[in-house]
Amino acid sequence: MRSTSFPSRAVAPLALAVWALCGAAQAQLQPTQIVVAQPADIRSTNPGVNRDNTTDGVVLNIVEGLVGYRENGSVGPLLARAYTISPDGLTYTFKLRTGVKFHNGDPMTSADVLWSWKRYMDPKTDWRCLSEFDGRSGLKVVNATAPDAQTFVLQLDKPSAVFLDNLARTDCGMAAVLSKKSVKEDGGWDKPIGTGPFKFEEWKRGEYVTMSAFTDYQSPPGAKADGYLGLKTPQVAQVKFLTVPDMSTSKAGLQSGAIDATQITSSDVQELKAHRSVKVMAVVDAGKNTLLMQNNDPVLKDERIRQAIAYSLDMKQIVAASSEGLAHVNNSAIQESSAFYSAVQKKGYEYNPAKAKKLLQEAGYKGQPIVIQANKRAHVPSFSVAVLSQAMMQAVGINAQIEVLEWATQLDRYNSGNYQMSSFTYSSRLDPALSYEQFSGNKAKQPRKVWDDPAAQKLIDQSFVESDPKKRQALFDQLHTQMITKTPLLVLYNVTDSWGVRTRLSGFTVWEGKPLLWGARLGSK
Q: For residues 139 and 158, is the Cβ–Cβ distance under 8 A?
């Protein structure tokens, strides 16, 4: 048995409001309130339901699940103090931490865990991750029980190496354990009454969300914070998430002191670095900035041409320029902070224009156009990567062109496989099996898949079942070696966001694009 313990018309009045704050920042700001600007309003307060990354970033300061992610992407106990897995991999037994209370003061017991689980598994809840557990994605939870007040048991129909990872997923709301009083008498959603370090206070739609410190919070064990685990003590009385769609307005609020933390555009990095009361944070997550190549395309089906494209690119220059020097190359599908990021994963592509030209000649390339699709969204490097890549590809004789699309159109083209190349950003997947699965699979069944290779798919399938870390490492290393050789896509670097933070704010962190407010405190600067 294994065990482990944010419409243009709306901008003007909002801008005026923030500018008013800017003009009287010192008089208006309370030293016990942290103000975090975000570019869009949350979609709901219902964990894992009607959500996006902005929503998750707020709600996961309020709720917690049985397990959560560490900084290195591994999963550990959160509301559980420990869990055991039966030898056949089918039964997961969670022992709950004692003394944990909901924000209304009620003690948390296994009955609450069971009620929360049954609610998620009810299709009427419309939980984003239901298909991961009801058999539609291959695995089914066949039974859930609470044999005593401190024990919760889940039984599966087959072993899975990513079961706990799916429970911990932030887009799933961490399968948060909620008080039954989070819903109305008719079963409709009311508000989140969770166990997290902050409790929900108010959501004024289109303007802000506030939460306050939970004074009876019981932190998980640990001397320091570790992702969603470890020491999570709230240090301020209140946090306000302020909706500021206009980036220049949020930057002005940051410079004046009306805002304590905000995501910033890469073009503002150098200016804000020079501000004496602002520090710039580079926040790296497991998302992947890539150049996809359609292997079914008449030109790009030739592996030598795909390899020539890889050799033509000075990836260090591309990454440095598109990230304002904040990021560096990572050609692996696994993020560097992962426990599975081995020496093999560090091996990538070399910049060799001469070799690129030689491969093009061998492949009989005759100047056929190769079109790179891109979009101009502010917080992704799609367009800049495409422009830099086009110039480098042209330098070795490739007729590279760019087609700029609206994001929705580019996404539709991606989903249908209708592209030659696409400058595309994948969202974060922490477990390597899930990361490889994002872009690998049968194109006939799922046209959005990029790497359609039976040998690679066999390794991925094994990694979903194999739970031994050493054996999984060997599988992932084989996959990386094959990916570099076959070149179905080019992983350039992990998603790197820029945040501006007032120097008076300490202990504030952002993990996987989401602000973590426990441990954050305000000083006098």
A: yes
Show the DSSP H helices in 155-260 as ranges. 163-168, 247-256
3-state SS assignment for residue 120: helix
Residue from 151, 167, 379 nearest 263 by CA:
379
The helix (run of H) or strand (run of E) holding residue 35 is strand 33-38
Q: Please give the C-alpha separations between residue 85 and each of 2, 95, 154, 156, 363, in angstroms, as whole numbers.
A: 5, 12, 10, 11, 52
- Token pair, residue 54, equals 């902005």
3-class secondary-structure state, position 403: strand
CB 261 within 8 A of CB 489: no
Q: How many CA atoms lie within 13 A of 3 on its CB side?
A: 10
- Closest C-alpha to 154, from 46, 65, 230: 65
Give the H/E segment covering residue 310: helix 303-312
Instruction: Give the Cα separation of 512 and 133 in Å (integer).
Output: 24
Place of tokens 């054996």: 471
Structure tokens at 410: 């580019």
pLDDT tens for the chain, 525 residues: list them: 555 552 333 334 454 455 444 444 333 434 589 999 998 999 999 999 989 889 999 999 999 999 999 999 999 999 999 999 999 999 999 999 999 999 999 999 999 999 999 999 999 999 999 999 999 988 999 999 999 999 999 999 999 999 999 999 999 999 999 999 999 999 999 999 999 999 999 999 999 999 999 999 999 999 999 999 999 999 999 999 999 999 899 999 999 999 999 999 888 989 999 999 999 999 999 999 999 999 999 999 999 999 999 999 999 999 999 988 889 999 999 999 999 999 999 999 999 999 999 999 999 999 999 999 999 987 789 999 999 999 999 999 999 999 999 999 999 999 999 999 999 999 888 999 999 999 999 999 999 999 999 999 999 999 999 989 999 999 999 999 999 999 999 999 999 989 999 999 999 999 988 999 999 999 875
- Structure tokens belonging to residue 350: 């070399």
CA Rg value for the chain: 24
Rounded to 5 degrees, what angle do the CA atoms 437, 46, 38 make?
Answer: 80
Question: Which 3-state string (H, E, C) describes 72-94?
Answer: CCCEEECCEEEEEECCCCCEEEE
> What is the residue whose two structure tokens read 């494209």?
309
21 three-class SS: helix
How many CB atoms are located within 10 Å of the residue 41 CB?
A: 19
266: helix, strand or coil: helix
Instruction: Give CA torsion, residues 163, 168, 171, 176, to 10 deg.
Output: 110
Q: Which helix (H) or strand (E) covers residue 11, if one does?
A: helix 8-23
- Distances in Å between the alpha carbon of 229 and those of 63, 77, 233? 13, 8, 11
CA distance 227 to 231: 10
C-beta separation of 311 from 303 below 8 A: no
